[in-house]
Amino acid sequence: MNPKTTIKGRGAQINVPNRFFELSHEIRDDFLEFCRKEGEVSDKNKTHYLEVFPKTIVNKLTSPDVGMLYSMNPYQGCEHGCVYCYARNSHEFWGYSAGLDFERRILVKKDAPELLEALLQKKSWQAHPIVMSGNTDCYQPAENEFEITRKCLSVFLKYKHPVAIITKNALILRDLDILKALAKDNLIGVNVSITTLSEDTRRILEPRTATTKRRLDTVRELSNSGIPVNVMLAPIIPSINSHEILHLAKLASDHGASSIAHTIVRLNGAIGSLFTDWIKKTMPDRAEKVLHQIESCHGGHLNDSRYGARMHGEGQIAKQIHDLVRLAKRKYFKDKGMPKLNTELYKQYKNGQLELF
Description:
With 357 residues, the protein is α/β, with parallel strands linked by helices. The protein contains 13 helices and 10 strands. The protein has one domain: pyruvate-formate lyase- activating enzyme (Alpha-Beta Horseshoe).
């Protein structure tokens, strides 16, 4: 990778046009030349937090591929900057680009705890596990400032309602007190995403995430605190991290994880062009090989929206990946697994424990 040709600390290296807009914005060479001559910076590469005011915070999911029924996201956009992230496409619905805008225009839902409590107080609501970070990471850097995730976890604890978390940030350990309290009643499950053991790869693939060592230490501390942890080996990208599956699985098991899961990378919507631009700039020596291998997992295309195939792929390379994961589970996670979350307590606490009398 040539650091002079890449934007430091960002995954995406460009802003792709928003598919919903007729007009697009581009930085022209003559503007860049003007900035050079004037000694000005053409792009300050700053993150901006923008407050938004949604009417609801919990989303019902209908996809058969995602393994969850309800999710909530305190933030839209994610400063972690994972270049492969499927959530990038959703930023276009807010009027932004799935590229750099996704990492630098973070939408903040400060009223998420109040919206969540209003939902849990509804007579019609029945307890189902709600997944925090179904789209964007609830422990991304913005959480350091706003603490929305911590406030939402307090609401879940108040109502004894089951919640699951997906993250790749060690910041989750800040809330260990609440997580331990939830775990006492089997109300919490954590999914920690660990993509690669190579720090050189992590820095360019997911630049503002916690290091792999910190994530493994997080798995150990959560597990030692009685909080069940599933490690997500996701996504598996052929010829980038596919050779690390067994080693990643062993380390996950050694650090106390209860299980592992995986997906194969898919580059839907704007992500295909973003990833192609990124890999040609960061890994030019293997760019075509990686792109062709991803295509071989998805019927000859980078994009794959087919239910049942888009997350797990098809073809010989996908089969090899699945076989390695099955072997890893059999070798390192035999007779282990994540517990089913408790949905029985919520009814008693829904109306201030009135149901008890």
